[in-house]
Structure formats: C-alpha cells, structure tokens
Write a structure and sequence with these properties.
The protein is mainly α. 92% of the residues lie in helices and 0% in strands. Pfam families: CsbD.
Length: 61
C-alpha cells in the first residue's frame, strides 16, 4: 500500500473533524480549513491508489 493512501486518509479524517468543529462553533475559518484539508486528503489518497495500480500492472508484465 502506497504511503500516500494512508496519509491521505489521515488528512481526510482530520479535515472532516475540523470542518464539523468549525460548523458547530460557527468558526468559518476552521470550517474552510477543514474542508480544504479533507479535499487535499482525497486527492492524496487518489494519487496513492493510482501508484498502487501502476505498481500492480508493472508486476503483471
């Protein structure tokens, strides 16, 4: 498993928590920061999945 997948998932979870805390407390800056971190984590996770697929395809050939 690619490191980007685990790190991406970690950022997704942290971002989601920040976003909820921001919504509950009315802190728009924290909410936006959480949303950005969550989406960056999704991208990083996707990069890790692509790297895993590429590595698996290379092993097949």
């Amino acid at each position: 498993m690619d490191k980007n997948r685990t790190e991406g998932t970690k950022h997704e979870v942290k971002g989601a928590i920040k976003e909820v805390v921001g919504k509950v407390t009315g802190n728009k800056a924290k909410e936006a920061s959480g949303n950005i971190e969550k989406n960056a984590g999704k991208v990083q996770n996707a990069v890790g999945k692509a790297a895993d697929r590429a590595r698996d395809e290379a092993k097949k050939h």
